[in-house]
User: Fold these one by one.
Assistant:
Number 1:
Amino acid sequence: MPIWLIPISLFWILAAVYFGGFNISIVGGSGFRQVLGLLVTYLLFLVAWGLLRWALGHLGENFLLKGVAPTLITMLALPLVGRAGFGVLGVRIHRGGAAAH
C-alpha cells in the first residue's frame, strides 16, 4: 500500500520543522523519554491518519478523500498529537523559548 508512504515520509519532515523550527520548548524527562515521546507521537500521527483515512474512505473511493484530506488534517493536528505523544511520558511542550516553571 504505497499510500502509507505519504504520512510516513511527511511526519519526519513536519516533526523537524515543528519541534526544531517553531518557538517551542520541550520540558521535563530525560533525553531517552523525549526520544520515546517522539516515537509515541509518530505512532499517534499514523493512527490518526489511518482512522481519518478509514472514516473518509466510507464517503467515497476518491484519492482526495482517502489520501490528501487525512494527510492535511493530521498535518494541521501535529501540535495536538505532539502534546499527547509527549504527555504520555510526562514530558511537556511549552510555547516560547523559556518554559514557565
Note: The mean pLDDT is 86.
Number 2:
Amino acid sequence: MSDTVDDFRFMKEHRKQMRAVYGVPCPQCNIKQPKRQATILLPQQRCRVDGYRDPRAELTSEQHQAVANGKVAA
C-alpha cells in the first residue's frame, strides 16, 4: 500500500513542478471571471471553468524527464 501512496505523491509533485515550469494562466478566466484566480494550464490542457484549450504543442517526453530529474529551473 505504501508504494501506491509514494507513487501518487511523486505524481502530485511532478504535476506541481510541470505547472511551475510550463504552466500559463488561462486568458479566458480573466475575461469571464476577473475576480477569480486564473487556472494554470499546461499545453493542450482544457480549462474546466470556461472550456478554453491551450493551443501550444504538447510536451515531449524529454521535457517531462527534464522536470522529473530537476534539470529545468522553476
Note: Residues 2-69 form one domain.
Number 3:
Amino acid sequence: MADLVVRYDQIPRFARAMKLAASETLVRETGRALNLIGKSDIQKMKSEQLTGGRLNVRFKGLLNAFKFKATESAGASSISQLDLDEYTGVKMFRIFQTGGEISPRRARTLTVLAPGARTAGGKRKYSMKELRDMIRSGAAEIIPTRNGPVVATPEFKTTKKGKLRRQSRITVLAYLRPRVGEQKRIDFFGNFEANAAEHERILGEAGDRAIGKMIDGEEGGE
C-alpha cells in the first residue's frame, strides 16, 4: 500500500472551511472527497501507467486489482482520523512499485514465458503444468543457450524418403532463469502528486459545501 498524505491546509478554500465550518459537517464532506480522490487517482494510474505505460496490462481483472480505500467518515470525529490508501491486491505487481530481484521459492529456476507461448493479444497459451507435460512427452525440450536454458519446440521435416529430419529452427516458449531483476514500473506516489490539481479541486468543492451547509443551518435557525 502507498501511505498518502493530503495537505488540507495548503488548499485555500479548504483551509477556510477548517476555520469556519462545523467539525461534523467538514469530516463528512472530507470523507466524501477522499473517496472521489481515490477514484480519480486509480483511474489516472490505469490510463497512464498500466495500459499506456511500461506495463501494458491488457486484462480487466488485473486492472481492477488496483484499488483504493478511504476511511469511513461516520466513524471519525476529526479529519485527522481520515486516511486514504491506494494499492494493488495482486502481489506480483508490488515488485513493480519498488523494483528488485525475484527468485524462485521451491524450484531451481523461474520460468519466464517467451512470445512463442503467448497469443497476439498477450494471453498465455500454456500453463506451467502444460509446459511440463510437453517436456515429458517430447513435444518440447530444454535446450541450453549462451544466455541460459530455454524451453522450446523444435521443428521437424521429412526427407525425400519420408524419414523425420530435424531442422535447426526452434520456437522458444520460455526462458529458465535462476533469478529475474525487475525495474520500477509503476509509481503510486508520483501518480498521487501528478494528480494534485484534481485533489485541490475536489477538496475545494468539499470545503465550499461544508461552509454552505453551515450557512444554511444558521439561516434556517433564525
Note: Residues 23-50 form the longest helix (28 residues).
